[in-house]
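Observation: inputs received (chain + DP6).
Thought: call the complex predictor directly.
Action: predict_structure
Action Input:
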Amino acid sequence: MSSAQAIARSNIALAKYWGKRDVRRNLPAVPSVSLTLDRFSTTTEVHFSKQLSADCLFLDDQQQQGKPLERVQQLLDRVRSLSDEKRFARVVSHNNFPTASGLASSASGFAALAAAALQASGMRWTPAQASDLARRSSASAARSIFAAFSELPAGRRGVTKLAARPLHNVDHWDVALVAALTSHVAKSVGSTEGMQRSKKTAPNYNDWLKQAPRLCRQIRKGIRERDLEQTGTAMEKSTMLFHSVAMCASPPILYWNAATISALHAVHALRERGVAAYATMDAGPHVKVLCQAPDAARIQQALRRVAGVLSTVVLRPGPGVEAKDLDENS
Ligand code: DP6
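Observation:
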């Protein structure tokens, strides 16, 4: 038996990925930049064994079938085709956050799985290889391979491999993301489906494709210069454009709820009082507020008072993926 374990953390995009250039290869149509977080991690073990007659997956102690298992099998197949490892695998995965919390994304899951599977296969692998492998399963997962700030470029014609690249490490900038959770219900439309529907039906989709690279450059520059106003302003534009594309799809995709809007008003009110706070939302109703770390407590307090906000959490820049071999008997 060959076994390994990896841990990866979730990430939040500051410059959003929304839209695929190539669905089959899962190549994004726009570049994205994200912050890997210090919390919300997935720990995954991969055990290749000749005793197994098929791959199997346990997620938070529940055996999985159907789509979740298929996506894991596809990743394992890729590792088997790259390495000398040809056996089936048992995959055991744990999230340290409630899977239905809505902050859960596939990012930490596929980043941890990619690293654990490569490590267990006995291959010598690089973070770029793990990122490319994770990206095939879920593009946002490519960014969770790296610590703190990283970028996933857009796919280009004729390019089949695509990995995220690290931009800046954890100690580059003392920022925080204050997350306001506004629902316990899983998102209404999954990202993959939402992106395809946006591409096919939203009249402003092409405009988004034009604007996104410029916003991404501004965000990268803002992060490099540790300029919160520049980063936050472009980040809000990226979020609003992506959500307006989703809202203009047919049928419309509205990820927000009433508390999302109330939280946005609270962020604007904070800014009017001189607090540098900027909001972003993913394919769900939660609001994440980017700020200087010393302002996080004040922002958290303000968000707690917003009607419909169920809980809040302060997130900080976190490390990249970590993988290790496991004892054969473990
Ligand atoms: C709104 O990475 O979940 O969170 O590649 O189809 O698995 P797939 O999509 P996914 O999309 C994430 C979309 C987003 C923005 C982002 O994280 O960049």
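Thought: report the result.
Final Answer: The first strand starts at residue 2 and ends at 15. Helices lie at 66-82, 106-120, 127-137, 191-201, 205-224, 228-247, 258-272, 296-304.
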